[in-house]
Task: inverse folding
């Protein structure tokens, strides 16, 4: 399904762990008809959390790319982890997204993870829509969550909707753009439209007027109409809100129960009508200080934002097309190392499922296989095109630990496995310390290192354990540890390197 640049929407789902990102992605796929039945996290049957470790833990650990067709648009959906340890997956997704959906758990409010993610949203200057999720939770508190969002993220946070009856009996949402009430049946889906109750009209009108003013502020013609009529039509509001959202002048707030499929369709409609396409966003940065805009008629340039390795397949490269059109068989040149790459096939991604497509145009996200010399942060150009996309700036490591193989003969095997993981995960750094005479890995946190351990086990067939034993003298340091564990077929992780310096 190749579409024009103006009809593409690239959306990244962000939020603290447990806020409902993966469930919302599943509801969006279901609402669009991309899937016929919603999977669940408990059953390990969602489209995005498809790796065994994610299904075992019940959390997203990797970013996942999916897409839906909604009205006249293609919406690419990037589901991301909520743990700060996996911030690299978030950063690479933010790099290629044009809009963020920031989910807030209505039972928990604004959480620590949300605030950390907000700093990255500001760094990327990403237009953002807030979604207060899990409105059906028995402890749901929409008003408190909304106030916390306003306090933390400012007066530009404006509600578009609010629930009439949140909690376990949740059925109704009042929409203050369309000034209508949506009433959902027990199975969710398409709601019935009803008038707003009289006792809610004053509250809804106050929210409506705030949205009208925000829409009018950013376009002179709309401001004149607003002064003349005192209001704007829905079409005029949509036009003004599109400008305001693209320039981060407004952060609209929606509500939903993704698990019950109540409200997700309206969110997708807003993305279709208001969220910026790649054609609408400001020019993107190139290495050297220059900028350019997305243009499907220009020579082809793509940027690899994520690389993974799959058994029986090899390297899988996720890319965004910054200009031109990508087709199977295209020959591109890596601007970072000068090597030539042939695009064997072009795929659209639906989580773990990849579908072959003839071509994709500027602004779209795609997948290809078996690139030989191209990895994350590389720009590939058609012959005659010589640009380099500004790379993703991944955060520095915050934790380090030494890794010792069970025997010297296993060192080469271990190093090879570590470098394979490092190639896929730019937030991991592998160091050969001459001072400590150890292989040291640097990561984002203990969960991150645990995931690296899991991936090493799958690649190398080692079993890896952590040692919390404290050494009090230099003579009792690494030699003692190796004497204790060398006879076991295990990879040994030595914590707190400072103890050995």
Result:
């Amino acid at each position: 399904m190749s579409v024009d640049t103006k009809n593409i929407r690239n959306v990244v789902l962000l939020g603290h762990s447990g806020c409902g990102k993966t469930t919302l992605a599943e509801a969006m796929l279901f609402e669009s008809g991309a899937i016929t039945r919603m999977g669940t996290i408990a059953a390990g049957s969602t489209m995005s959390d498809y790796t065994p470790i994610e299904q075992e833990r019940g959390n997203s650990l990797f970013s996942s790319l999916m897409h839906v067709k909604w009205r006249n648009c293609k919406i690419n959906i990037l589901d991301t982890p909520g743990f700060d340890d996996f911030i690299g997956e978030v950063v690479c997704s933010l790099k290629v997204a044009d809009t963020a959906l920031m989910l807030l758990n209505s039972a928990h409010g604004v959480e620590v993870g949300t605030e950390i993610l907000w700093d990255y949203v500001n760094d990327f200057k990403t237009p953002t829509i807030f979604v207060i999720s899990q409105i059906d939770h028995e402890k749901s508190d929409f008003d408190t969550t909304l106030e916390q969002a306003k306090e933390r993220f400012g007066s530009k946070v404006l509600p578009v909707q609010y629930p009439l009856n949140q909690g376990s009996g949740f059925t109704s949402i009042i929409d203050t753009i369309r000034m209508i009430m949506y009433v959902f049946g027990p199975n969710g889906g398409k709601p019935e439209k009803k008038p707003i109750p009289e006792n809610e009209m004053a509250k809804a009108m106050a929210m409506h007027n705030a949205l009208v003013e925000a829409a009018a502020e950013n376009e002179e013609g709309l401001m004149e109409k607003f002064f003349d009529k005192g209001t704007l039509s829905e079409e005029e509001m949509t036009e003004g809100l599109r400008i305001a959202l693209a320039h981060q002048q407004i952060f609209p707030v929606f509500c939903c129960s993704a698990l019950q499929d109540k409200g997700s369709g309206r969110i997708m409609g807003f993305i279709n009508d208001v969220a910026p396409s790649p054609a609408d966003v400001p020019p993107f940065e190139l290495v050297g200080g220059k900028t350019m805009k997305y243009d499907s008629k220009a020579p082809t340039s793509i940027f690899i934002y994520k690389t993974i390795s799959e058994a029986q397949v090899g390297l899988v490269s996720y890319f965004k097309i910054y200009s031109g059109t990508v087709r199977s068989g295209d020959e591109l040149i890596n601007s970072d190392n000068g090597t030539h790459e042939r695009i064997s096939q072009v795929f659209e991604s639906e989580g773990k499922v990849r579908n072959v497509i003839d071509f994709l145009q500027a602004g779209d996200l795609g997948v290809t296989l078996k690139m030989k010399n191209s990895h994350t942060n590389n720009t590939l150009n058609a012959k005659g095109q010589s640009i380099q996309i500004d790379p993703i700036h991944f955060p520095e490591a915050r934790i380090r630990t030494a890794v010792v193989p069970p025997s010297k003969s296993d060192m080469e095997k271990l190093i090879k496995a570590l470098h394979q993981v490092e190639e896929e995960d730019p937030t991991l750094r592998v160091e050969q310390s001459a001072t400590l005479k150890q292989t040291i890995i640097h990561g984002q946190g203990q969960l991150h290192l645990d995931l690296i351990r899991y991936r090493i086990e799958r690649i190398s067939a080692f079993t890896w354990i952590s040692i919390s034993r404290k050494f009090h003298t230099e003579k009792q340091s690494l030699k003692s540890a190796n004497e204790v564990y060398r006879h076991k077929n295990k990879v040994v992780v030595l914590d707190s390197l400072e103890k050995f310096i």
Q: What stands out?
A: Confidence is low (pLDDT under 50) at residues 464-501.
